[in-house]
Amino acid sequence: MLFGFALENLTKGIIVCRDPSRVTKIGFKGWHRKGHKLLELFELAMIPLDEQERKLLGRVTRLTEWKGRYPLPMTFDKVTPHEPLLGYIALSESWPEDDYNALCALYDKARAIFDESTLAIPPLPEDYQFDAT
What SS3 class is residue 4? Predict the structure, then answer.
């Protein structure tokens, strides 16, 4: 779940750095109710992904959206030894090592693009007027 939040914040940072007009006084333009949808955020941030990374982001999005709020099934009939959000047998709370390494690589990729973006684009002036809507 924390990896999901970290990836979400990095991609939003890239998007906002490149287009500060997306930030308004009341929120963000262009991703209402899409806050945790990592695949969409990676696409908006123009971070290239292969098919395995796309699938991984789909699993992490489901985890980020639901597992943090509802760590257990809401009804008894949903209790199984299979983890429906991730698609794995729920024997432990840890992720498969390959997925963990892929998440680390995605984080490093997004972080490098974030760093490049913040260095390439000058900061906003102190008197920048954010749109009211």
Answer: helix
- Residue 18 phi/psi, 5-degree rounding, is -75, -30
3-52: per-residue pLDDT in tens? 888 999 999 999 999 998 888 888 777 666 656 789 999 999 999 999 99
Tokens 């102190």 belong to which residue? Answer: 126
pLDDT digits (tens, 9 = 90+) for 47-83: 999 999 999 998 888 777 766 666 665 666 665 555 5
Q: How far is CA 22 from the centre of its chain?
A: 17
In which domain, by residue range, is 39 found? 2-120
127 lies in a domain? no
Query: No. of H helices and E strands in the chain?
Result: 4, 2
**Residue 128 domain flag:** no
Number of domains in the chain: 1
Nearest to 3 by CA among 53, 70, 76: 53
Is residue 125 domain-resident?
A: no
Residue 87 lies in a domain: yes
In this structure, the number of other CB atoms found within 10 A of the CB of residue 90 comes to: 13
